[in-house]
């Protein structure tokens, strides 16, 4: 395995067991049906699919929140199985996540400064002054200012909150960032700002992104590779230009056809103008 | 004659920090058989104008207009009783969150029936037939069974179909769709947009499509209104708007689309506003 591969997933399977009714028998839902892929350092892999296709289940496994039912997960060449052993703090810090809804993912009673210093308090031995300093630096890096340190989440707009969520994820210097629909709750102009910020941060810290999205135009813009999921299976996986240029699977084509197109040729065709 | 004419519509809300002007002297009109898209970001006042037309604003909302006319009848001076005969029958509206728009305690048939009881003189049997017919029209599989279902037994796309069925139950002349597909997956979005366009073409009703998605605008509209912070920025035919946007805000909005990206970074609307003035 080359040194450049930061994360390797082999046949990841995740099953959820639920009971139907009080006396009912157990129903097994296979949310992931054997997913394999590699993630190279400094690159962006996009995961595309509709609700219920297993995108978020995959995110939970990769963030080491949930164990996989079977399959292997290697992070920087080291096999990780959280159902067998406790995670070390170093491993914990390696993968961080940014969630979709910046209104739900920040505690309304926690000041921004505390949001950012909490991961350091739990995972490092830094003094309060050092933690504070690092948090201030991070605020500036994500395009906010030191004056925001003592404010509460409700005082921020959606785009600013998403900047805070990104800052929190970066506090422990992760190498891999899982972005679960990070811009789908944002307005178009704010979306552009956040996408630019993510690109800047990727350059600066050589970050690797796993970018979960349903918006194909965003995916095409930001990703190097794309993985299309459908009912827990990977139906297409490859370089962005290959997949967008010549989609092989039926579902990928359906997805492309369903995406609204804003180009002029398309509008002309709809209106029947030459 | 235009179906709906709005001239200098202003809406203000009373808040603890004083009056807030959500809509500032906005004028536009819709003709029968036309699809008008109203596009803007959150806080642009795109929904507020339509809520004012429907009379659905909360108690703290204040409406002024030089003209708010539907089919030659003034909606401002109309009595509440008269207005209720127009709203829900000749003008109807569908909303963004299909699952939240339906009452979880009643079957969809019951809720669909309410519109028919209110606005038609059909008897029970005829209403039942009409419901099944409507469910077929909106492409619901097994329409007879569907009307006996509760909202939670349906998917988001199916709930939106029920909302559309409700909205077209009395054959409205104007349908207002407020972000009808924002909460749905792309493939479902396409089905719902196709359904709306199909119904619009068959019935010749006017359709106002409120959206923030430029793709949806490009796929559906004849004419487009661009709004920003309560003001109308631009009004143009759909092709004209995408080909040669006149207003700087429209230009900024179109260049912020990822598919129009040319370099490594996207141009942002920040030349026009700071984009993060939401802290208040």
Task: Characterize this entry briefly.
Chain A has 10 helices and 10 strands.
The separation of the N and C termini of chain B measures 43 Å
Order of helices and strands of chain A: EEEHEEHEHHHEHEHEEHHH
Order of helices and strands of chain B: EEEHEEEHEHHHHHEHEHEEHH
Alpha-carbon distance between the two ends of chain A: 54 Å
CATH 4th-level superfamily of chain A? P-loop containing nucleotide triphosphate hydrolases
Provide the structure class of chain A.
alpha/beta
Assign an overall shape of chain B.
Answer: globular
Most extensive interface, chain pair and sizes: A-B, 43 and 42 residues
Tell me roughly what share of residues is in helical segments of chain B.
25-40%
What topology, given as strand order, has the largest sheet of chain B? 7-8-9-3-10-11
The SS-based structural class of chain B is alpha/beta
Return the CATH class of the domain at 4-99 and 174-267 in chain B. Alpha Beta
CATH structural architecture of chain A: 3-Layer(aba) Sandwich
- Count of beta strands of chain A: 10
Topology, number of strands of chain B: 11
As laid out across the biggest beta sheet of chain A, the strand order is: 6-7-8-3-9-10
Mean of residue pLDDT values of chain B: 89
Assembly level: heterodimer
How would you describe this structure in keywords?
heterodimer, A: 274 residues, alpha/beta, Rossmann fold, 6-stranded mixed β-sheet, 4-stranded antiparallel β-sheet, 10 helices, globular, B: 280 residues, 5-stranded antiparallel β-sheet, disordered C terminus
